[in-house]
């Protein structure tokens, strides 16, 4: 397990996302219902950034073509079965947010 500090609490607004770069890997960090979630930053449809997408509970909608992903599991919720984005464990310590990469 390699924890990397990626943000401070308050940098990601409720029901919002922020793209971060960890050692060359683009990751989307989301905050919803008091929890942080992290998954790969590019939608599987056309490799567009997903962090600016609309978040509702555990679902983010890609702002480009409206694909929906579960931000906890990475699973695509519509269109194709078996499509899943990589997720990352998030650990909050005090004011610091870490991702296990």
TrEMBL record:
Q: Does the keyword NADP apply?
A: no
Note the Pfam families from the entry: Rieske (PF00355)
Q: Which UniProt keywords apply?
A: 2Fe-2S, Dioxygenase, Iron, Iron-sulfur, Metal-binding, Oxidoreductase
Q: Which GO terms describe its molecular function?
A: 2 iron, 2 sulfur cluster binding; dioxygenase activity; metal ion binding
SUPFAM superfamilies for the chain? ISP domain
Protein's UniProt keywords contain Magnesium: no
The record's InterPro entries line, in alphabetical order, gives: Rieske_2Fe-2S, Rieske_2Fe-2S_sf
- Residue ranges occupied by any Rieske domain in the UniProt entry: 4-99
Against Gene3D superfamilies, the record matches this protein to: Rieske [2Fe-2S] iron-sulphur domain
Question: Which cofactors does the annotated protein need, by name?
Answer: [2Fe-2S] cluster
**Signal sequence span per UniProt?**
none
PANTHER family in the record: FERREDOXIN-RELATED, RIESKE DOMAIN-CONTAINING PROTEIN
Protein's UniProt name: Ferredoxin subunit of nitrite reductase and ring-hydroxylating dioxygenase
Question: Which organism does this record belong to?
Answer: Candidatus Nitrososphaera evergladensis SR1
């Amino acid at each position: 397990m390699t924890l990397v500090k990626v943000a401070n609490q308050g940098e990601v607004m409720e029901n919002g996302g922020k793209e971060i770069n960890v050692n060359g890997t683009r990751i989307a960090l989301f905050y919803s219902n008091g929890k942080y979630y992290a998954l790969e930053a590019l939608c599987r449809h056309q490799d567009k950034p997903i962090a600016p997408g609309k978040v509702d509970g555990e679902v983010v909608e890609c702002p480009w073509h409206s694909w929906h992903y579960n931000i906890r599991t990475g699973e695509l919720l519509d269109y194709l079965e078996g499509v899943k984005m990589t997720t990352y464990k998030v650990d909050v310590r005090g004011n610091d947010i870490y991702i296990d990469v």
